[in-house]
Every structure is written in structure tokens, then in C-alpha cells.
């Protein structure tokens, strides 16, 4: 299928590029922009037309998607003079897919509204593998009619879009989901340390966890990497620490008690401080094993992790 509907994608990182590539593969002309020349080359290889300037990348595009790392990048990209909000046409739709704070998102919403731009907060749940397979879930808030416009394109890289309201509801939802993921990673670390102390085989316990009442999609997804002691990052410990800072700020601002979030933030601080910041977030295993006096396990390949 080929369509004349042009789409812009700003931010072609580990998650942004596979999402944009799926849109291009579905037949939509995609205009891409990223500060990294390497990412732009990869985008060209995926059928995305790279642009040297932010302004040219959004020309004639009714839908503009953004995928960036944090608040600072979002505010710099959107609100700076000659930034994205200024470059976009009135009546277009800005779809922001990242995990950012409520406060930063609200500032973008105000600037977009002043320019007559519909703003969808649309953080996604999943990892680069899910992005490549088109099975991400999108939490969406903002004008419902804008989601109706964007849904056909979003269907190329998501399995579902959950519309949650007109304002910042999607930001709250994404932070709540990431809190559950962080705490689940901590629980898995403690459970596996207990099992090792009880002389249960590493792989046997992982199989049991995956097949038990707590065998969530996350547990199942992490079972094989943990069997292999493979901590290659799909979402790093440092990134999880950043998200936990957002969660704590959001919760404290709204008077919500989140002791588990605070505890996990300290656990990730420990991981970062001991050289595991770029490991996958499931490296909480290292933290609980170290606290429990357990040695590293040798993987099937002979590596110790």
C-alpha cells in the first residue's frame, strides 16, 4: 500500500527508528530528523527520507511524531526559538511518544494550543523488539478527534491505543506502568536470590516463575536472558532511574505515598554506582545477589554475569 499522507518522525533512537520504519514499510512517506548522522543513515536504509533541518522535516506533514530521551530534550526541541512548535503548521497534530514529566508535557501542551496544534501525549509501553514487531501499546491523552486522525498510522507500530482523557492522563499512566515494572524487577531479584540460597537450580526457578501465577509477560520475556545471564540493555538501569525520579516527583507533587518507588530508586543508584548503569534494568539481580553474598553465576557460554 502507498499513501500520499506524509508523516514526520523526530528522534530516531533505539525506539523511535523501528516505529518510524514500520510506518514507512506500511507505505507512508516518512520524513525523519535526528541530531545523529549515524541514526539518519540507518533511517535512510529503512526507507525514511532524512532531513538536515527540523523545519524541512515537518513540511507538509499533518502528523508529527516525536521520540526523545527526557524533559530537557523535549523542551529544547519543542519550545526553543525556531523549534518544533514554531515549525509545525496550524491544524497539524503533534504526537509525543516519550516518557517525560507531567510539568514538561503541560508546557508543550500550552505552546501547541497557542499555535492551533493538536497535542497527543502518547507514551508507549514496550521495547525495541516490540517496536520492530508492531506490538507496542500506546497510552494516549489529548483531543480524541486527533487520535482518530492519527490512529491509522499508529496502528502500524502499536497493537492498541488506549485513550485516557483530554489532558495529562497518559503521562500518569506511563509512570504508573513503569513503577510496576521497576518494582517487579526488584521482586524478581529478591526471589531469585532466595531460591539460590535454598539450592534451587537457576534455570529451574526461572522456569517455575514463568509458569506460575506471577508469570507476567515481563517475567516471561526476561526468562531466557536471565538464564543466559545476558544483561544487554533493552531499557537500561540508568533509564529506569531517570523514570523513577519522574515517578517520585509526580507522586510527591500529588500527595501519593510511593515507598516502593523510593526503595527501587536507591537500588538503581547502587547499580549505577557499581558499574551496571548501562546494563538492562533487570540487572537488579546483581544488586540482590551482592547484598546476599552470592557469587556470580557462569552462563552456558562460560561468561560470568
TrEMBL record:
One of its GO terms (molecular function) is oxidoreductase activity. Residues 6-165 form the 6-phosphogluconate dehydrogenase NADP-binding domain. Its EC number is 1.1.-.-. InterPro entries: 6-PGluconate_DH-like_C_sf, 6PGD_dom2, 6PGDH_NADP-bd, HIBADH-like_NADP-bd, HIBADH-related, NAD(P)-bd_dom_sf. Pfam families: NAD_binding_11, NAD_binding_2. The keyword Zinc does not apply. Keywords: NAD, Oxidoreductase. Residues 171-286 form the 3-hydroxyisobutyrate dehydrogenase-like NAD-binding domain. The keyword NAD applies. Coiled coil: none annotated. It is an enzyme of class 1 (oxidoreductase). PANTHER family: 3-HYDROXYISOBUTYRATE DEHYDROGENASE, MITOCHONDRIAL, 3-HYDROXYISOBUTYRATE DEHYDROGENASE-RELATED. This is NAD(P)-dependent oxidoreductase. The lineage of its organism: Bacteria, Pseudomonadati, Pseudomonadota, Gammaproteobacteria, Oceanospirillales.
Amino acid at each position: 500500500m502507498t499513501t500520499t499522507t506524509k508523516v514526520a518522525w523526530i528522534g530516531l533512537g533505539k525506539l523511535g527508528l523501528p516505529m518510524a520504519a514500520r510506518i514507512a514499510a506500511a507505505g507512508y512517506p516518512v520524513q525523519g530528523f535526528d541530531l545523529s548522522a549515524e541514526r539518519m543513515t540507518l533511517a535512510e536504509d529503512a526507507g525514511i527520507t532524512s532531513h538536515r533541518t527540523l523545519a524541512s522535516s515537518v513540511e507538509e506533514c499533518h502528523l508529527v511524531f516525536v521520540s526523545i530521551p527526557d524533559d530537557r530534550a523535549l523542551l529544547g526541541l519543542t519550545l526553543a526559538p525556531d523549534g518544533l512548535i514554531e515549525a509545525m503548521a496550524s491544524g497539524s497534530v503533534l504526537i509525543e511518544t516519550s516518557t517525560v514529566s507531567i510539568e514538561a508535557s503541560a508546557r508543550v501542551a500550552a505552546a501547541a494550543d497557542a499555535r492551533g496544534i493538536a497535542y497527543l501525549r502518547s507514551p508507549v509501553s514496550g521495547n525495541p523488539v516490540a517496536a520492530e514487531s508492531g506490538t507496542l501499546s500506546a497510552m494516549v491523552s489529548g483531543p480524541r478527534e486527533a487520535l482518530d486522525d492519527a490512529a491509522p498510522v499508529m496502528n502500524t507500530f502499536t497493537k492498541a491505543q488506549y485513550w485516557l482523557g483530554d489532558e495529562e492522563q497518559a503521562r500518569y499512566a506511563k509512570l504508573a506502568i513503569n513503577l510496576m515494572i521497576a518494582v517487579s524487577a526488584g521482586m524478581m531479584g529478591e526471589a531469585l536470590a532466595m531460591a539460590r540460597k535454598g539450592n534451587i537450580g537457576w534455570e529451574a526457578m526461572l522456569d517455575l516463575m514463568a509458569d506460575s501465577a506471577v508469570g507476567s509477560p515481563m517475567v516471561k520475556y526476561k526468562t531466557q536472558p536471565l538464564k543466559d545471564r545476558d544483561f544487554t540493555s533493552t531499557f537500561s538501569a540508568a533509564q529506569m532511574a531517570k523514570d523513577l525520579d519522574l515517578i517520585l516527583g509526580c507522586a510527591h507533587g500529588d500527595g501519593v505515598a510511593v515507598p516502593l518507588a523510593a526503595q527501587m530508586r536507591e537500588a538503581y543508584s547502587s547499580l549505577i554506582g557499581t558499574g551496571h548503569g548501562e546494563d538492562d534494568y533487570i540487572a537488579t539481580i546483581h544488586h540482590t545477589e551482592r547484598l546476599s553474598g552470592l557469587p556470580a553465576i557462569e552462563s552456558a557460554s562460560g561468561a560470568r554475569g
